């Protein structure tokens, strides 16, 4: 079912018309820059188990609501649909994860309808649910728990309508297992490769952190994650061009971009890529949902905040070489640093993430 | 550190057998109780005349929509008086504080067949599992050990709903769950879940191990209550507070009584969340949990505050 054109047009103009491939017309409005989840609270970076409660942040911030919908929503969903059309294996779910899929659908629809009533609505009459998504022009009546009443599986259905990648983790044998997910805006990792792996296995490629026992501690913490007490952390990397789908499967399309950075185009081409990762315990399945919401910002946009400009220059300059290599920065780090140095006068920066 | 809690009202309270009482609860503070997975438990805060008790009870089958929780409580002659309070003082209209559900006894959804084994009041999480497996059309069998039929909580309901999947064992005529008979018939991808008295759980797990079952296919939930013991003094070094742990009180409850928010989750010695570093002690720690390894117990520098105690005068904790 779809909504009338008039009702959709009513809200469509609130979202950017932009692309994350080919002509790369993606950009952030000044409001989006101001709310960007900048990941560095000091002038240096090292791993930490930087997990905190996923509590509401300040109004208009990326963490004001549990699920953040922003000006890129419609364009990101269009990009996800294209990725899935070309490669259906970006969305996979093992058979025992169906209940967790319904839990995820409940979490996302409930959050989106509650926090963005202008754009989404959900009416529940027992197990008969009625969902309206105005920005995408979708209306759906279905029976909660009956997958035959939805056009796709519950996870795929709802995540085609929600920004961010999602993984569903089954908890058993004192470990967490990546047994379902939809992953189309990832920083160079593959769901198809990791599906069925446990927590320690899928973190295998991360350098340094294993020796610090970070994953053992994080696993223990997450296995005790409680309902109603979600947690979050920020992760980051860099991407050349505002491409959401930097997947290993498509490396031949984007890997070469890393060699195209020159001091002249850094401001437009080089992007800081921040992942707002959040984890919830799901009620019916006892599974955990791991959401990975990607935010992109051009260096040219980032330096409009003087504190962030100074800080990112210092963080990139002092990054350990293993981390620079793991994050794929090696090719264009020097050019980026050279460009950023013009915005770093050496003045001290204030503590904390937020701009001055 | 404590999880989310709900204020609830008892909407139904009825005897299931002469010694088991069922409570149904609904939220009264505008919240909706979320659905719960089979095997979950909640903590009831019981304001008994003598002390504040926090007891864990497994949830009976939950609906997909949530909204209400049900627990079934066996009247026991425990020293703390929790079950007596539930039986004698709680009725329709009573108000309680409960915790959000926690599941330390989950179904393994990858198993192809599930063997559920319950002894007595251990039926509560097992009944929730049976219902979830039944609803999902999964293969399972239920072995229920009771004293006799009038003593078998939910027996008629279980038989009516699950038919030949239910196998009964009457202990008063000497019947016993035939581990050695039932288990060798199982496929390699069968999982077994047992809940009941400690002796029964131990026997089932031992027999299964002896028959070559993989540890990861065996699951047990023990009804561990803190139990009492001689009083002792505890010093919370970081909070700079000293308090005496009463003979019917757990260490964790004493810590909470003086207003210190100590970590905890299951309150039954299983999850490991309440592990606390011991700074000094003048006696022997009575480890009653199922979490610390033998080596960790012998080291004596950590204690699970929810169930374990000191046999001695004074315990100093890093809290």
UniProtKB/TrEMBL annotation, chain B:
Keyword check for Magnesium: no
GO function terms (MF aspect): 2 iron, 2 sulfur cluster binding; metal ion binding; oxidoreductase activity
Keyword Flavoprotein listed: yes
InterPro entries for the chain: 2Fe-2S_ferredoxin-like_sf (IPR036010), 2Fe-2S_ferredoxin-type (IPR001041), 2Fe2S_fd_BS (IPR006058), Beta-grasp_dom_sf (IPR012675), DmmA-like_N (IPR054582), FAD-bd_FR_type (IPR017927), FNR_nucleotide-bd (IPR039261), MRET (IPR050415)
Record-linked CDD domains: fer2, PDR_like
Cofactor(s) needed: FMN
Domain FAD-binding FR-type: 3-108
The name this protein goes by in its record: Probable ferredoxin protein
Keyword terms: 2Fe-2S, Flavoprotein, FMN, Iron, Iron-sulfur, Metal-binding, Oxidoreductase
One Pfam family from the record: DmmA-like_N
Span of domain 2Fe-2S ferredoxin-type: 232-319
